[in-house]
Amino acid sequence: MGLSEYKRQVLKVGVEKNHVPAAGAVMIRPLVLAAVVVTALIALPCRLPGQDTSRDVVSRLRPAADRLIATATRDSAAHARLGKLVDTFGPRLSGSASLEAAIDWILREMKSDGLANVRGEPVTVPHWVRGAESATMVQPRRVRLPMLGLGGSVATPTSGVTAPVLVVSSFEDLQLRAAEAKGKIVLFDAPFTTYRETVRYRVEGASAAARVGAVACLIRSIAPFSIRSPHTGSVRYDPSGPRIPAAALTVEDAEMIHRFQDRGELVVLTLKMSARTLPDVQSRNVVAEVVGRERPDEVVVLGGHIDSWDVGQGAMDDGGGSVAAWEAVRLIHQLDLRPRRTVRVVLWTNEENGGRGADAYRDRHAGELPSHVAAIESDNGTFTPRGFRFSGEDAALEQLQQVGALLQSIGANLVTRETQSPEADIAPLVERGVPGLGLEVDRSRYFWFHHSEGDTLDKVDPGELARCVAALAVMAYVLAELPDGLSRTASR
Q1: Known catalytic residues?
Q2: Nearest to 329 by CA among 355, 294, 300
Q3: Residue 438 β-bridge partners
Q4: CB half-sphere exposure, 324, CA atoms < 13 A
Q5: What is the pLDDT of residues 164-222, one digit of tens each?
Q6: What is the pTM assigned to this prediction?
Q7: Would you list the domain boundaries of the chain?
Q8: Which CATH entry fits the domain spanning 54-126+281-481: 3.30.720.120, 3.20.20.70, 3.40.630.10, 1.10.4160.10?
């Protein structure tokens, strides 16, 4: 019944009740009665009987949210499961046997958890193998330097590359000294500012150095803190230019070589790398669900990426995020909180060196994307949760801030605007109009260990991980339960 019709019915009832006066009552004139009723109607809230605001709906979901938070934070179940994953299978680079064995185990565990529609969705992924590698400073003194080749790098000749080093601080500095770079190993010693700004040297440095005639490229590891540990990550070659070997040195050694150069001392290095890019292989995105009770075709997606680099254990990046999302869905199922819509956990493959898992999910589910209510990812470590970063419409942001209030007890209530997709694996969905959320955590220590041998289980605190599970579970459940979902842009 529309609002106008509702007002007409109220007016009709008022007239009927006053149509026949009680004995001894004073007769109310129709015009006076009409004025009284209309005045009362003006004071009515502009919504139908039983129609709630989104704030009312969210408030009614508080008991369920509190149950999810209490269950997630009462023990270390998530940490124990993460430990089983990373200790048993170790690092999980795309194309590796360890990644596929980990996926097999996860699929078995999800079925044991009682989740629905557990499956591996096929994805063709790149297969890069690091091989043996080393960096040795031979002048002004001989010392073996810790290093990690960058993912996707080409190899050196078998005998290696021995050449003088030219240290530069930026791309602009390289251009100013371009005439000196020919035949040298270019080292980018760019101090960490933000990840988004500094990572350009890892991604683009090799091609920039090759364009001015360098024979190899080294970078200062992309990290704000170091205990002489190198950090890897992908390099991207300009398809129209030469490809030269690329690797990362530690922060300390990059600074040391820079000091030698500043003192006028020649530094010569030998770099040896046997990296290979093999033919593409098959991997899988891991998918499981709690099926919605009323609108099963409408979906809230949450997840992380199950692949990692080939160093450390991939515990922070992104074993913790993957397990947190998995545990969030398991808790919704365990507590029998079956929401209106389907909650789907997706553990994407190949985030680290290709993003093909994210693209494959988008393509496989292209016809369903208009029915995707939201996509949520955790990929910044599972440190203390602060809330969520959101990409979507302003009206949806207001709704999400109301949902965030349910997480006040664990300090994860902040929901803020993001100008682009908050995480990499949900970017292909956000680009198609799906509202996107990234779990926001305290990232002050994340890049200390990111893409390094230091990414191990001991860096993940059980209590912090449990609160991440709680935040993800509450957000996913409430979005799946809201009667009208989130406001969103049209799919493109």
Answers
A1: 351
A2: 300
A3: 377, 389
A4: 41
A5: 999 999 999 999 999 999 999 999 999 999 999 999 999 999 999 999 999 999 999 99
A6: 0.88
A7: 3-42, 54-126+281-481, 131-274
A8: 3.40.630.10
